[in-house]
């Protein structure tokens, strides 16, 4: 894909099989991929690799690691970190009270009720939709 | 003695009078005794019991009046009738003031005498009945008081808190358990006052308001929000210390026969254990869901990849992926086995178990082989040290495999990267002792007693990342107990743990 050329995607995900599956799909579509198994290494890789987009698994055992990753990035002084598109992969979207920011349908959320990310996807991921969304976000 | 007839004493110095009265009254069925003087009367009175006495007012020696006074001193329940001649009517009247019941004037006809005596006896019977009734009432009151005090003792001893408030919302009764559960110390609630918001939790008082506002409501139950400090909540979450209890209040309206409200009875119950169990089961379900979702999600994702043709033209990759899918189904199978095992062991009925003489070192060897790969993935070494003269143990092979697999898996799971596991087996006094030690995160002292409780998992910052069903040790314990063995646990936080399984060995190999 012409629009994928040279674009790098960081996958922050603790399940090695999910990483492998996503990598296969993304690479087939022409993206470069790097991965990290936890939030700490993920933050380090953002600085080291300078990805164009992040796929983040938010359902880590403690439940807070993923959120911590997002908030840390968004508070960074580097505009690239603040603005990098993040798509959250979660197994619990239907039952989670967390909302996307900005959420066009609901402006009544409190400060920690939303995640400043660009999309939520349920696992297992619908790959066509995911690729479409990635394309859209990278074109902006 | 029939109600109608009585024991009568006739006191008169005139024999004609005595005989006349005797004849008239005996013919009525009464038992008649006569005395010719006050002295004789006194003597008879002290020996026998009488219901009625006829006293002649005018007698030599002790006069009728004096006799009346003295006889009354002996028995004031007897009815006294004074016999008088018309001339002494005023005296007769005076006699009634001194305690005589009535008087009869001579001469009198048999009917006149009978009428006076009957009336007097009727009075006597009534008084006796009244006295009996009073006595019975006294006994009943004692009974009620005893019942009341028994009820009071019961209420005072109850483990649940009880309080009763009347129509005016004033407190009329409460027990020590109420004070304890609500944490009321020092200042006791006042009886006959409306419960004060300074002493009683506001949500409880609000609930009582609703109940008083009433209408149809006869009973309601609610959980109370007990204010906890952040520290207490954190402590309670670790399961290592108890915070204030979870309470539930049940309020019922007390009604009279007409259905009108007389007040409320409020029962406070400690539901901490129930909530804890609910929480643990909820945690368990979440854990199971998470454990299920991960392998299922990964397998589904992989299959989508293959089906979408992403691996078309790359059969080696495809084979790799399918192999991983197969491995992940293993984790699912493990979870299902855990759940089934746990459920099976919970059954109070008989469990199928095949006992045979086993050499535990063989089983341990196999267990360690299975664990080699997951251990190597984190650079954890496993050492095995079995004594040569290990005796046989009478046990179920599958359960022994399960038991030691659980212990070794835990030793790896809770270990640090690059750490080590040691499995040792030796003979001790009557037992084969198998020790599984690790260099892992260790277990806090307070948590050790609770290991093996179903769904219980140690929650410290060190263990938060480690997933598990909380059933493994519970299953181990049940297996060990079923084989008449013991489990000993030693641990130091930050250093590691040792689990020691003691199983009785067979006296001689077959």
Describe the structure.
- Chain A has 140 residues and is α/β, with parallel strands linked by helices.
- Chain A has a single domain, classed as Response regulator (Rossmann fold, 3-Layer(aba) Sandwich), CATH 3.40.50.2300.
- In chain A, 37% of the residues lie in helices and 20% in strands.
- In chain A, the strands form two sheets. Chain A has a five-stranded parallel β-sheet, with helices on both faces.
- The longest helix of chain A is centred in the first third of the chain and has 13 residues, at 16-28.
- The mean pLDDT of chain A is 82.
- By secondary structure, chain B is an alpha/beta fold.
- Chain B has four domains: 7-132, Rossmann fold; 158-270, Beta-Lactamase, CATH 3.30.450.20; 277-346, Helix Hairpins (Orthogonal Bundle), CATH 1.10.287.130; 355-504, Histidine kinase-like ATPase, C-terminal domain (Heat Shock Protein 90, 2-Layer Sandwich), CATH 3.30.565.
- In chain B, 46% of the residues lie in helices and 21% in strands.
- Chain B is built from 14 helices and 17 strands.
- Chain B has helices spanning 15-27, 38-47, 64-74, 89-97, 110-157, 176-181, 202-213, 230-238, 272-307, 315-346, 360-377, 397-413, 445-448, 472-482; strands at 7-11, 31-35, 52-56, 79-85, 102-106, 161-166, 171-174, 219-224, 247-255, 261-270, 355-358, 381-386, 393-396, 420-427, 431-438, 486-492, 496-504.
- In chain B, the strands form four sheets. Chain B has a five-stranded parallel β-sheet with strand order 2-1-3-4-5, with helices on both faces. In chain B, strands 7-6-10-9-8 form a five-stranded antiparallel β-sheet. In chain B, strands 12-14-15-17-16 form a five-stranded mixed β-sheet, with helices on one face.
- In chain B, a hairpin with a 3-residue loop joins strand 16 (486-492) and strand 17.
- In chain B, helix 2 packs parallel to helix 3, helix 9 (272-307) packs antiparallel against helix 10 and helix 12 (397-413) runs antiparallel to helix 14 (472-482).
- Chain B is elongated.
- The interface between A and B is medium-sized, with 17 and 22 residues.
């Amino acid at each position: 894909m012409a629009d994928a050329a040279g674009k790098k995607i960081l996958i922050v995900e603790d399940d090695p099989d999910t990483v492998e599956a996503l990598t296969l799909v993304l690479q087939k579509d022409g993206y470069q991929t790097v991965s990290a198994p936890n939030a700490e290494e993920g933050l380090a890789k953002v600085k080291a690799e300078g990805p164009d987009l992040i796929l983040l698994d938010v359902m880590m055992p403690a439940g807070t690691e993923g959120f911590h990753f997002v908030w840390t990035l968004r508070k960074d002084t580097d505009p690239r970190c603040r603005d990098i598109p993040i798509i959250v992969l979660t197994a619990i979207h239907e039952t989670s009270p967390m909302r996307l920011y900005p959420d066009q349908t609901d402006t009544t959320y409190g400060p920690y009720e939303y995640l400043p990310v660009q999309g939520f996807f349920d696992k297992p991921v619908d790959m066509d939709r995911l690729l479409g969304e990635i394309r859209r976000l990278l074109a902006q | 003695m029939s109600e109608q007839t009585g024991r009568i004493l006739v006191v008169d110095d005139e024999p004609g009078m005595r005989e006349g009265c005797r004849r008239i009254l005996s013919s009525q069925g009464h038992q008649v005794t006569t005395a010719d003087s006050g002295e004789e009367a006194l003597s008879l009175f002290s020996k026998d019991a009488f219901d009625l006495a006829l006293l002649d007012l005018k007698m030599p020696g002790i006069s009728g009046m004096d006799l009346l006074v003295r006889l009354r001193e002996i028995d004031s329940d007897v009815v006294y009738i004074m016999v008088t001649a018309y001339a002494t009517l005023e005296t007769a009247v005076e006699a009634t003031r001194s305690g005589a019941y009535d008087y009869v004037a001579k001469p009198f006809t048999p009917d006149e005498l009978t009428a006076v005596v009957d009336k007097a006896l009727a009075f006597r019977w009534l008084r006796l009945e009244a006295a009996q009734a009073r006595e019975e009432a006294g006994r009943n009151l004692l009974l009620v008081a005893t019942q009341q005090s028994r009820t009071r003792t019961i209420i005072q001893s109850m483990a649940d808190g009880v309080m009763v408030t009347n129509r005016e919302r004033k407190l009329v009764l409460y027990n020590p358990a109420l004070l304890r559960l609500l944490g009321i110390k020092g200042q006791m609630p006042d009886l006959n006052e409306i419960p004060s918001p300074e002493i009683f939790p506001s949500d409880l008082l609000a609930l009582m308001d609703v109940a008083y506002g009433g209408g149809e409501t006869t009973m309601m139950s609610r959980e109370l929000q007990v204010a906890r400090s952040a520290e207490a909540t954190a402590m309670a979450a670790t399961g290592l210390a108890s915070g204030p209890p979870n309470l539930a209040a049940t309020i019922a309206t007390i009604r009279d026969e007409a259905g009108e409200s007389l007040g409320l009875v409020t029962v406070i119950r400690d539901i901490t254990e129930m909530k804890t169990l609910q929480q643990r089961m909820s945690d368990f379900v979440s854990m199971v869901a998470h454990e299920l979702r991960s392998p299922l999600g990964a397998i589904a994702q992989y299959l989508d990849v293959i089906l979408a043709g992403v691996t078309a033209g790359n059969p080696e990759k495809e084979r790799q992926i399918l192999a991983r899918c197969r491995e992940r189904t293993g984790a699912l199978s493990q979870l299902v086995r855990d759940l089934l095992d746990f459920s099976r062991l919970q059954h109070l009925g008989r469990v199928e178990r095949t006992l045979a003489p086993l050499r535990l070192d063989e089983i341990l060897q196999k267990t360690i082989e299975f664990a080699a790969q997951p251990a190597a993935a984190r650079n954890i070494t496993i050492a095995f040290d079995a004594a040569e003269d290990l005796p046989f143990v009478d046990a179920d092979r599958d359960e022994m495999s399960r038991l030691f697999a659980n212990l070794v898996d835990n030793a790896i799971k809770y270990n640090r990267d690059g750490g080590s596991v040691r499995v040792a087996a030796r003979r001790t006094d009557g037992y084969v002792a198998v020790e599984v030690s690790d260099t892992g995160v260790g277990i806090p002292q307070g948590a050790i007693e609770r290991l093996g409780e179903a769904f219980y998992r140690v929650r410290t910052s060190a263990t938060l990342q480690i997933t598990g069903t909380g059933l493994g040790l519970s299953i181990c314990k049940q297996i060990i107990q079923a084989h008449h063995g013991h489990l000993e646990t030693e641990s130091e936080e930050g250093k590691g743990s040792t689990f020691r399984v003691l199983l009785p060995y067979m006296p001689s190999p077959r």
